């Protein structure tokens, strides 16, 4: 508490009290003694918790450094002003520091990716997702026959967040057994199975697009994610929500179908 005076502390608590009153729509004219005590007590508690959690470096160090520079270059002027200014009068600097503390306390908190994922999925607990064009760099089954599959690095973080609170099933149409192996190796190399949120048994393969639609209908997910507009259209009346992933801008085909250029962009992670 050495870097803040009693007067500044009083101003911070006063401003906090007004801020809290405004947040809860409490009129100063309707406050009784108990209400005032409660609001002031909350303001004091918030302030001291903030002081406790605040890093001792950062802002305080910068303030000390700025004060040292200012005092070195304006020492004589500062001493003169201090002797002339009445002790009971606050300087604009005091008000500014008090307001800065209050503003810092009430800065909006940026949500985490996990919070964004849960919000966007509307707390859905089961998700089915196509691999080609969504999770994998490859977009056609034929590509899996001639080269190893590659998981998009940009989608990995979102995928792992989904597995933390959703029952996730990945699925794809493949043309041979080797393609299946390449997909599983790619997912394993990317660390998708390492967290324990997704197991290999929940990676499903079929030989037709209708087969994938059948998988989805049997699993009855809250969300299905796909890049094939025909599959999206077929499932629209059976699945609560769907995400159509396409690099091309497409019109919304149903109220429960959302569009995005990529899975990661739908969740705002890029």
Mean pLDDT: 79
**Class by alpha and beta content:** alpha/beta
Helix content: 40-55%
Largest sheet: 6 strands, parallel
Tell me what portion of residues adopts beta-strand conformation: 5-15%
Given as residue ranges, the uncertain stretches (5+ residues, pLDDT < 50) are 76-85
Give, in spatial order, the strands making up the sheet with the most strands: 3-2-1-4-5-6
Form type: elongated
In total, how many beta strands? 6
Intertermini distance: 41 Å
Helix and strand pattern: HHHHHHEHHEHEHEHEEH
- What Rg is obtained from the alpha carbons, in whole angstroms? 29 Å
User: What count of helical segments does DSSP give?
Assistant: 12
Give a description of the structure.
This protein is an alpha/beta fold and 270 residues long. The protein is built from twelve helices and six strands. The protein has helices at residues 6-23, 33-53, 58-73, 75-84, 92-105, 113-120, 143-146, 153-165, 177-189, 209-219, 229-235, 263-266; strands at residues 126-130, 167-173, 203-206, 223-226, 241-245, 257-260. It has a six-stranded parallel sheet with strand order 3-2-1-4-5-6, with helices on both faces. Helix 1 (6-23) packs across helix 2 (33-53) and helix 6 crosses helix 8. It is elongated, with a radius of gyration of 29 Å.
């Amino acid at each position: 508490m050495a870097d803040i005076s009693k007067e500044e502390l009083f101003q911070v608590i006063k401003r906090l009290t007004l801020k809290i009153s405004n947040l809860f729509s409490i009129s100063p004219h309707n406050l009784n003694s108990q209400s005032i005590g409660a609001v002031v007590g909350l303001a004091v508690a918030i302030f001291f918790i903030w002081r406790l959690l605040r890093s001792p470096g950062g802002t305080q160090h910068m303030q000390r450094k700025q004060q040292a520079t200012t005092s070195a270059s304006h020492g004589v002027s500062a001493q003169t002003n201090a002797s002339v200014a009445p002790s009971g009068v606050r300087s604009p600097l005091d008000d500014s520091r008090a307001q800065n503390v209050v503003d810092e306390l009430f800065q909006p908190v940026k949500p985490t990716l996990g919070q964004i994922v849960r919000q966007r999925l509307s707390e859905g607990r089961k998700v089915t997702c196509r691999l080609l064009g969504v999770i994998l760099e490859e977009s056609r089954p034929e590509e899996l026959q001639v080269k190893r599959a590659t998981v998009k690095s940009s989608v990995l973080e979102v995928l792992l967040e989904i597995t933390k609170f959703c029952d996730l099933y990945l699925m794809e149409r493949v043309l041979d057994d080797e393609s299946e192996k390449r997909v599983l190796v790619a997912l394993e190399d990317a660390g998708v199975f390492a967290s324990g949120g997704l197991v290999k048994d929940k990676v499903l393969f079929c030989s037709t697009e209708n087969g994938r639609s059948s998988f989805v209908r049997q699993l009855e997910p809250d969300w299905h994610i796909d890049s094939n507009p025909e599959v999206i259209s077929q499932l629209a009346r059976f699945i609560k929500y769907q995400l159509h992933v396409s690099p091309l801008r497409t019109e919304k085909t149903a109220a429960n179908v959302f569009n995005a250029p990529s899975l990661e962009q739908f969740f705002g992670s890029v």
